[in-house]
């Protein structure tokens, strides 16, 4: 595990020299405070204009992008604080990822995955959709599939969504459908979902069947149940995964909504919860990834 001093050195080495000089007027870089604690406290308190400086000098972005500097939980917390202070920070994070580096060879895979994970729940994700399209052309299928899931959830252009579905890789198509499942308004995408239910790939069609089953389509419910009981591991795994992340949460929510309705409480529309993150797993068992 790297020391706190090494973390500071790594972050500042990717920023302008002027950033280090300015920081030295506030803290000792020979014996710096804990990086995460300092960034969190400063962004929350905005002491002497330091918060704006940490964002604009890309110190916060560099700390977020390096998985060895901050743990996933810490990065998520810091991202939330940064977004609260600067509503455009998600775009700035993407820009920093791509700045002054040849795409895609000079952009580390680990940084790409960290960045995509952090922008997934941005408050206005459609504004970064055009930039995310760039990631669907990355040579690594895991990057393509992660971007497809985000775009499936947020991209407004139906034509672009259909274009992404034409990917020859089943993982990309399956993740696209999984992302679509998380939309608040599924109706514009239902023709594509019904098309995907007939996809020759089991993992793709299973995701689509889960959406249809969730909406009360009896045949889809039956097919999904049959696949969950299959003795073929790749089929049963995909079906059980789809059921757990796309069907079961809604069953519990429907019961809660029914109870609320009986008690005269207003019922909120269902919102798809966050799904299990598996895009960072290795390719050892591709049939078990989504």
Q: Which properties best describe this structure?
A:
290 residues, mainly alpha, 16 helices, 62% helix, elongated, disordered C terminus
Please tell me about this protein's structure.
Mean pLDDT is 87; it is low at 265-290. Helix 5 (59-65) packs across helix 7 (89-98). By secondary structure, the protein is mainly α. The chain is built from 16 helices and no strands. The two termini are 30 Å apart. The chain has helices at 4-13, 17-23, 35-45, 50-56, 59-65, 72-85, 89-98, 109-119, 129-135, 141-154, 158-165, 170-181, 190-196, 202-214, 218-228, 233-262.
List the helices and strands and how they pair.
Layout: H1 4-13, H2 17-23, H3 35-45, H4 50-56, H5 59-65, H6 72-85, H7 89-98, H8 109-119, H9 129-135, H10 141-154, H11 158-165, H12 170-181, H13 190-196, H14 202-214, H15 218-228, H16 233-262
Helix pairs in contact: 3-4, 3-6, 5-6, 5-7, 7-8, 8-10, 9-10, 10-12, 12-14, 13-14, 14-15, 14-16, 15-16
């Amino acid at each position: 595990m790297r020391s706190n001093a090494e973390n500071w050195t790594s972050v500042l080495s990717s920023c302008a020299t002027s950033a280090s000089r300015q920081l030295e007027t506030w803290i000792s870089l020979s014996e710096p405070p804990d990086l995460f604690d300092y960034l969190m406290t400063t962004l929350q308190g905005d002491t002497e204009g330091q918060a704006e400086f940490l964002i604009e000098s890309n110190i916060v972005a560099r700390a977020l992008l390096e998985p060895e500097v901050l743990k996933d939980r810490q990065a998520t917390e810091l991202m939330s604080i940064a977004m609260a202070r600067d509503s455009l920070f998600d775009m700035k994070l993407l820009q920093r990822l791509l700045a002054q580096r040849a795409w895609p060879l000079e952009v580390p895979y680990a940084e790409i995955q960290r960045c995509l994970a952090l922008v997934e729940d941005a408050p206005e994700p459609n504004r970064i959709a055009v930039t995310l399209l760039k990631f669907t052309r990355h040579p690594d299928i895991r990057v393509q599939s992660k971007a497809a899931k985000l775009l499936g959830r947020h991209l407004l252009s139906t034509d672009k969504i259909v274009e992404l579905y034409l990917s020859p890789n089943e993982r990309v198509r399956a993740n696209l459908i999984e992302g679509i499942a998380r939309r608040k308004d599924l109706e514009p995408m239902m023709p594509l979902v019904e098309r995907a239910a007939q996809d020759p790939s089991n993992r793709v069609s299973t995701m689509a069947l889960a959406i249809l089953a969730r909406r009360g389509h009896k045949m889809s419910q039956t097919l999904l149940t049959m696949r969950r009981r299959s003795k073929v591991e790749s089929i049963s795994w995909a079906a059980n995964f789809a059921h757990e992340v796309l069907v079961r949460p809604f069953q519990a929510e429907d019961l809660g909504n029914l109870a609320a309705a009986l008690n005269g409480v207003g019922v909120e529309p269902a919102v798809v919860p966050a799904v299990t993150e598996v895009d960072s797993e290795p390719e050892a068992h591709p049939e078990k990834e989504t």
